[in-house]
Design a protein that fits this description.
With 397 residues, this protein is an alpha+beta fold. 34% of the residues lie in helices and 21% in strands. Helix 1 packs parallel to helix 2 and helix 6 packs across helix 10.
Length: 397
């Protein structure tokens, strides 16, 4: 059954620019930063923190004092009297955060929730697990960011290997992946036209500081790689005998995003334009066979579409979290949609992947594209660790 009571105020969301790994945001505590950005966003929209009766915060890369993440975030945005959960579900964290908020709205236990997601893949933690029974009393250590990219403990594979499994099974070669990557880069450049007119609809700058002094602002994405057919052709596959190159996959990044999730009445009050309605209709999730992570976006999308009572052909716009061009190609084939009709104005393949907020930014862009198109249904689907994926369907009217 579709969700019936959950809305997003038009303009009730933000995303920071995404900064390259070890770039401008690499030394900022991600929870403190999302609190700072969230508070500045509310001030700019003249929204009082009293508007909210709950928060949800998604994060996948732990930071110091992340034990307190949800209520700490609430206090940082100026709402110290409310609280809410901290959510982590790999790259599906954004959809899971929105789903958690939506279910509370549907149940009537909350009326207006500020859902946000943040991550800093740069300078990730180094964890040591003591083991007195280890050789010489030594424990073992882990680098959660690199370690999890390079090994799914159940499948026993790196994420790139799961993409190669899919490419082999589906017959997706390097040339086709390069072609789609080039098209996605061209779509991203559409978002930069007219002095970034599309991105300015939702993107907020981040003030950079050195100590207490301002060091300017990060106003646009940092680290997007210039892409050309010749450059992609020259790149060699990451794995011997493979097809996936560093050009046809996403790159780790830092950033945050937020979306207000509320009742229809509250959405009308908080909307930047009361004539635009944004309704969350459904979410879906799925898990595919072991070692084929990128395939999961398809059954997850179908799950969400069935719950919403529509099919892909009825969607005016579609976004994916496509960490590999091979996954993007597979999705288009299986869902019977033209590759050029997916990911207009850019996608994580091009603008980067800070994990938790990746899907939230894509959903925000989906809303804005639907507004430009005059409304309609929109689908987002993105894969996640553990050969899984989550999807979300919304409608703009």
């Amino acid at each position: 059954m579709p969700l019936e009571k959950t809305y997003i105020p038009y303009g009730g969301y933000w995303s920071t620019p995404f900064a390259r790994w070890q770039g401008s945001l690499s030394e900022y505590h991600s929870i403190r930063l999302v609190g700072q950005v969230g508070r500045e966003f509310l001030t700019s929209r003249e929204l009082v923190p009293d508007s909210f009766d709950g928060v949800v915060l998604g994060i996948t890369v732990t930071q110091s004092h992340a034990f307190y993440a949800g209520p700490w975030f609430a206090a940082l945005v100026g709402a110290p009297d409310i609280t809410g959960p901290t959510v982590s579900q790999a790259c599906a964290t954004s959809v899971r955060s929105l789903a958690s908020a939506a279910l509370e709205i549907e149940a009537g236990t909350r009326e207006c929730i500020l859902a946000a997601a943040c991550d800093r893949t740069s300078n990730g933690p180094h964890i040591y697990y003591p083991s007195p029974d280890g050789p010489g009393g030594h424990g073992r250590s882990e680098d959660p960011v690199i370690g999890n990219m390079n090994l799914d403990p159940y499948a026993g594979l790196a994420m790139t290997e799961t993409a190669e499994n899919l490419a082999t099974e589906a017959g997706i070669g390097k040339e086709e992946q390069d072609s789609v990557t080039l098209m996605r880069f061209a779509q991203y450049e559409d978002a930069l036209a007219d002095d970034r007119a599309f991105q300015r609809r939702y993107m907020v700058p981040v003030e950079l500081k050195r100590g207490k002094k301002s060091a300017g602002f990060l106003e646009a994405d940092e680290g997007v790689h210039p892409t050309s057919a010749q450059g992609l052709e020259r790149l060699r596959p990451v794995l011997e005998g493979g097809t996936v190159t560093y050009g046809s996959q996403t790159h780790p990044a830092d950033g945050n995003a937020g979306i207000i999730v509320c009742t229809q009445e509250r959405a009308s009050e908080l909307s930047r334009d009361e004539n635009i309605n944004v309704q969350i209709l459904s979410y879906g999730e799925a898990r595919t066979e072991k070692g084929f992570m990128p395939k999961a976006v398809v059954p997850a999308a179908r799950h969400a579409l069935v719950r919403a009572g529509i099919d892909a052909a009825q969607c005016a716009a579609i976004k994916t979290h496509n960490p590999f061009a091979a996954a993007d190609i597979y999705f288009s084939r299986e869902m019977h949609v033209a590759p050029e009709d997916v990911n207009n104005y850019g996608s994580p393949l091009i603008w980067g992947h800070p994990q938790a907020p990746t899907g939230m930014r894509a959903i925000i862009e989906l809303i804005e594209e639907l507004v430009i198109r005059g409304g309609g249904h929109g689908l987002f689907s993105g894969c996640a660790g553990g050969d899984s994926a989550m999807s979300l369907v919304l409608r703009v009217s």
